[in-house]
Amino acid sequence: MIWTVAVSLLGLMALSIPVGIVLFLLGIGVGQFFSPFPLLRGMGQMIWSSSASSTLIAIPLFVLLGELLVRGGVAARTYAALDRWLSWLPGGLIHANIATATMFSATSGSSVATAATVATVAMPQGERMGYDPRLFSGAIAAGGTLGILIPPSINLIVYGFLTESSIPSLFVAGLLPGGLMALGFILVTALICRLRPGLGGPSRSFTWEERLRSLVNLVPIIVLFLVVVGSIYAGWATPTESAAIGVVMAALIAAFGDGLKLSSVADALVGTVRITAMIMLVITAAFFLNFAMSSSGMGRQIGAMIEGAGLSPYATLLVVILLYVVLGLFIETLSLMVATIPIVVPIISGMGFDTIWFGVLMIILIEMALITPPVGLNLFVVQSVRRGGSMNQVAVGVIPYVAVMVAMLIALIALPGIALWLPSIL
Amino acid sequence: MLDSLHRGICRANRAIALLLGLALVIMTLIILCEVVMRKLSLGGLNLSEEISGYLMAAMSSWGLACALVERAHVRIDVIRQKLRAGGQVFLDLLAMIVTNGVVLLIVVKCWPVLEKTIQRGSTANTPLETPMWIPQGLWFAGWAWFLLTTTVLSLLGIAWLARAQRAPLDAALGMGSELET
Amino acid sequence: EEHFAGVGTWSNVYVFQDYEKPFWDTELSKLTNGEMSAEVNSLDQMGIAGADVYRMLGDGVFDFGTTIADYAVGDAPELEGLDVPLIAMTPDAAHKMIDAAEPMVKDIFAQRFNATYLGMLPHPPQVMFCRDEVRSLADLKGKKVRGSGRMTTKFLEALGAQGVNISFSEVPGALQRGVIDCAITGSGSGLDAGWWEMTKYLVNVPFGGWDTAVVAMNTDRFNELSEKQQTMLKDAVKTGLEDPIWAAANDRMEQSIDCLSGSEACKKPTGAKMEIINFSDADIAKAKEILVSTVLPDWAGRTTPEWVSRWNDSVGKVTGVQIAQ
Ligand code: NA
Ligand code: NA
């Protein structure tokens, strides 16, 4: 069954049918051919309940936050400031892509929103300055994934929700690995561009005066981070509520900065609705597909397979990681989490691994899934901002960053403290 | 005629998206009020948890058509980009008609949800006791609107094809390659 | 041979792990001499919302379904009477209450959900985890409490607490940061979910009732069985599922309280050391008074007079509570 599903998925998607619709078609197919039950009768109920979710309101809120920062010019100024500080490195502007993505990750809970924000401000620059599109757009897609590792994070909220673990602990646990990974992205970019200068752009240097003066442009984003994350730790707001506080704060920052025109507010709202609906079609469809697959016994098959193998804890962990890498190629990430956490986390924690630590590990795997073709939401988002060119270019551009993610996974397994140290002292 | 029908449906969807966006703004303010009132121990409104769920449902049905006319739904172009214009048109139309069919099925399967709610007079399992036909009715209407939009676009696509008008066909059903900003 | 597939309660709760799953997956076949077999998935694994389980069951999406009755009160407000807080303080009393409600529940399931009642499963009582000292009803005034379900939340508000509506996932964080002062859940799930890490006081009063789950089968499917098979299935659910859970209910409840308080009787100590607080008899009486004078009549307004009189004659009789009409 797993193979039939995978092959149909690829085939239908290759026909350029919208991904959400393909997932629905597969769910219908699985229900008809592999399940003894008339699952279609439950379809409406699944669609209603998976979309009427107050936890998911964090998605449009974080998207809107990003849109406001873009349209209020905050994103562009942040990008310009980071350009002053980092473009002397081999690879030039690509480092600003990564650093901007990292900073936006600290205010946004969604990788897709982060990638969309950075792509919108960075892509025109890269195109204007004649960068090789592969590494340039790959860095945005990969950098954007940090949005769910560095707090706040919608996916960590979902993980905490499903595993009943502390969301604030998860948030702090993601901080250090997120920072290290951003550093890793920068290092690998510099290394590649040192070896193959054609892949990057010109290294540019700015005077210290220019750099220091640009620092003021980083203030808004830092304030926003402090407000969004601070409101959670001060006990004022839940993580979802902090997203709403962030939106109001972003609107104020944008309004007091360049000022927000009414028409650009309208564009921001329409853009938010458009992106949210696009994501929600995929999520609802994935929920239905998950429902179809688990009622036809697929979840069971996987669980039994892992448990029945009688492997040592680390071998099991390896199997689980490989499972996520493979499934992550094809499946939308939030639904991948929803589908697998109830099966995998009990097995993993039963083997003595820490749930918070595994949450961070899983998020890195999910980040990988976001940028691996054929289904990689961040690839799609970055591609949708580009003017022309094939999606393959973005997919090739992320390869070095996937390597960094693999290195991070290994480091995290060897030194769990990377994730667990901060929660233990806070 | 065809073009103005297409423009009309695009404009209607933009207006709908704007309304949804405004609802999101209001929701944001309600959440903010609740946070502040709770912090000041003024008692809560306690609306946001429940209503934000309904808003999400409305956004994820009514917003679909907006995403569709602005070509924001994710499509994979690995094969499509290798085809010549004729093949691309074929795939675009196929994608739209398949979407139309699936959405038709979804609408048919979503109706019983609302129907049961109306028959039983179901309310939300919350102190607010919201009559569920209101949020579910809104949600269902959004899917019905999406069905109408996909149907109109499919028919427009066929009509344009019959008249061999490739440019408007590509503009309406093709692959969105830029997120307009 | 008859094979059933269905949905059970939460995968992380002992009722599912230790009873439902083994019962459907293996015991049923043994109890029916191989004439019946089944497979069960938890609702969280299937990604089904609690409120959808019986709706889908009625549509025949699966053969049998088990979920907390309280999740379905949006579709069947009369079902709220099954799990009234505070009128049953011990497992024995809860057992009597639930037995008395059985004929009502049967009819509700037949009328509302096209489903045939098979049995009811209790969870540990729903108690209150608090950050700060709450020793009496007076202390509860103004506290921000996250309740579960409609009647519980209304009850808390009638008691002077401030009901806060946040999703389950956000409870631990909200407790830790003081967004809320108290939260209600089953003592067992609170233990498993580590709520004791964020709270110090456990108010051992069943503010949320017993979270009774109802096992039911799609009626069309049930009618496909021969009469003999129908009896066989009902008996199997009773002896293989219901009875063992009841038999263990007292121990389970005591164990979870022992483990939350860090008492030596706890078999699997977690390090929890909560102070267990029992309200005075006077406070309980007062709370019950408020329940009877405000919360239950409020429920009566949501359902029909017929259901209220049936409730008075059954559950009301064994618990000594009457709703004025
Ligand atoms: Na983030
Ligand atoms: Na992927």
Automatic annotation (TrEMBL), chain A:
It comes from the Bacteria. One of its GO terms (cellular component) is plasma membrane. It is a multi-pass membrane protein. It holds the Pfam family DctM. Keywords: Cell inner membrane, Cell membrane, Membrane, Transmembrane, Transmembrane helix, Transport. Its main location: membrane. Belongs to the TRAP transporter large permease family. Part of the tripartite ATP-independent periplasmic (TRAP) transport system. The complex comprises the extracytoplasmic solute receptor protein and the two transmembrane proteins. This is TRAP transporter large permease protein. It comes from Pseudooceanicola albus. The lineage of its organism: Bacteria, Pseudomonadati, Pseudomonadota, Alphaproteobacteria, Rhodobacterales.
TrEMBL record, chain B:
It is a multi-pass membrane protein. Keywords: Cell inner membrane, Cell membrane, Membrane, Transmembrane, Transmembrane helix, Transport. One of its GO terms (cellular component) is plasma membrane. Residues 27-149 form the Tripartite ATP-independent periplasmic transporters DctQ component domain. It is found in: Cell inner membrane. GO terms for biological process: C4-dicarboxylate transport. The complex comprises the extracytoplasmic solute receptor protein and the two transmembrane proteins. PANTHER family: 2,3-DIKETO-L-GULONATE TRAP TRANSPORTER SMALL PERMEASE PROTEIN YIAM (PTHR35011), TRAP TRANSPORTER SMALL PERMEASE PROTEIN (PTHR35011:SF10). This is TRAP transporter small permease protein. It comes from Pseudooceanicola albus.
